[in-house]
Predict the structure.
Amino acid sequence: MLRTLFTPRWLTLLGVVIAVCVAFGYLGAWQLSVAQHDAIRELQAEQEALTERPLHEVLTPHAPFTGDLAGQPVVVEGSYDAARQFLVPHRVLDGQEGYWVVTPLMVGDGGSVLTVLRGFVTDPELADQPPAAPVTVRGELAPGESPYFGEEPVPDGQRGTIDLSALANEWPERFYNAFLFSTSESPQVTADAVDHVPPPRLAIGDVDWRNLGYALQWWVFAAFAVFMYWKMLRDASGARPEVSAPDGSEPEHSGQRPTVDAAHTDERIEPHHV
Amino acid sequence: MSDRAKLKFFQVMAFVVGVALLVLTTHMVLRYGFGNHALDWWAMPHGFLYMAYLVSVAMLGFALRWELGPMVLVMLAGCVPFLSFWVEHRVSRTALAEIEAKETAATGVPSY
């Protein structure tokens, strides 16, 4: 097989196969990045196209939080209950570690409660106590976080995560299975020292199977070229002239050895494991 | 898989890919001509169908000991709208003759 390989014809073909592999490899990678950007742009456009709606139109107390509600902009009226406010430690905003300030909002007449992430502070002292005055809060909905399983105990007035199932058990009001990334209030009752936490946005790196599929196709084609080359080379190095095409067009076996050993004779009958 | 089965597989795939390519062409016209993204989803299934076509050509080609050049040309024919139908017709005719000749050489009579 090596003797066949080191002929101009097969070396040229090898060059072609390598070029194809490199080109297809790059095409696959390019496709992947394009598809990724496309998918993200689509999802972002979808999210931006969501229009703000009153909370009661999209979610009722105790109703499950469905996936399409994540990032839904809502407006809700109520009043904060500062007595039950808590902080969530080990949160990061703009590279600084600090605390999320989470306050229950008594919605409407006070019969139901929505968990509102009012903002972020670097020091617990900076977390203000909002007055129990009527306020209109705008923001985006998010599903609750996982329960806290950390080793270190959490100080009083703090919770490891926004664990809605725990809150639902402790708060007597009818409970919304969501929390709100507050983006604005009117009137603004939250102190300026409490920074708004921007609602989560999709970032590069979210790939769905479809994107991978596009790229994979190029790579599979490249692998196929390699396979074709290997198979042709193997056939050529073991080929015999008498099995040429019957229409008289004698295929040129340029790399072919004049003698074929007995082992190959058997193989000739059904040599194709494709 | 017998040579005849490989030929059948090739014929089926050539037809399927021929039609699939026409759908893809429609998609390109819609998308780049009219900004219509209705057929965007078709690109990927077409890719996989084309792969199956390549495999079918390779299986038939290796079985009948085609040269690399013609084999690659038959493969590329699957990328040109309408060409694959004509190529399939031509290839089937010569391939059938080759298969019959091969069978005659092996057993003395062509098997049907």
Remarks:
- Helices of chain B lie at 3-34, 43-63, 68-77, 83-107.
- The first helix of chain B runs from residue 3 to 34.
